[in-house]
Amino acid sequence: MTLTPADPALVFPFTGGRPCLDFVATLGKRYTAPFERLTDPDALSRWIGEAGLRVDRAGGEGVRVTASELAAARELRESIHLALRAAMGGDGREVALPDAEDLVRINEAATRPDLAPQLAFAGSGSGWTVRNHAGGASARHDVRAAMATVARDAVLLIGGPLVARVKECENPDCSLMFLDDSQARRRRWCSMERCGNLAKVAGYRARSRAGSRS
Question: How confident is the model at residue 125 (pLDDT cuts 50, 70, 90)?
């Protein structure tokens, strides 16, 4: 069973359109008031499950995460973020370039066995399903397989043409990245529900104040 955190800020956003972008989003408000969504090993286990990166094993147990695996995952996340920001180029914010250690961390994670999607027929009433398989690895490697999948996604995104569509939300208090797959490539917000509506309300209030003074 997936537990919802008591603090709404710790709910994981999945608006990036790619696993690596959603993983980077586990650190909130990077440029104003950073806060950690991966607060403990259970939080990382929850993110892996909600991201659809949990290995399907008998019993349906959640992924068991150790403290060292949590620390390594956070380091991988920050290396991916630095590489993404460098690949995106400047947008008015200062860009810190990834160093050799960051690239080694991403590439090493990407070389490990990742999750292999497996097609299964669930019956005439349910149709086809996709299950994650870890290539025969034991359960103790489930976190490594999930992180390898994230790292490989980052490598393919940063090294491919779609990186030109990666943007950051235009809300200055938000740092969420997303892949702009809109037809006109004019998406501005991580989502309308999160920041788009806030911008609309702020714009309406500003226009109302201006109108009242005129």
Answer: low
Per-residue pLDDT reduced to its tens digit, 179-213:
998 888 888 888 777 786 665 655 445 445 554 55
Three-state secondary structure readout of 100-124: HHHHHHHHHHHHCCCCEEEEEECCC
What pLDDT digit, counting tens, does each position of 43-89 carry?
999 999 999 998 877 666 778 999 999 999 999 999 999 999 999 87
* Helices 41-50, 67-88: inter-axial angle, 10-degree rounding: 60
Tallying the residues shown for the chain, one arrives at: 214
How far is Cα 32 from Cα 45, in angstroms, rounded to an integer? 27
CB-based contacts of 122, cutoff 8 Å, min separation 6: 128, 129
- Residue 73: what pLDDT? 98
- Rounded Cα gap, residues 25 and 168, in angstroms: 11
Could you give the CA distance from residue 113 to residue 79 in angstroms, rounded to a whole number? 20
Dihedral over alpha carbons 82, 86, 90, 91 (to 10 degrees): -50
Distance between CA 53 and CA 163 in Å, rounded? 22
List beta partners, residue 178. 167
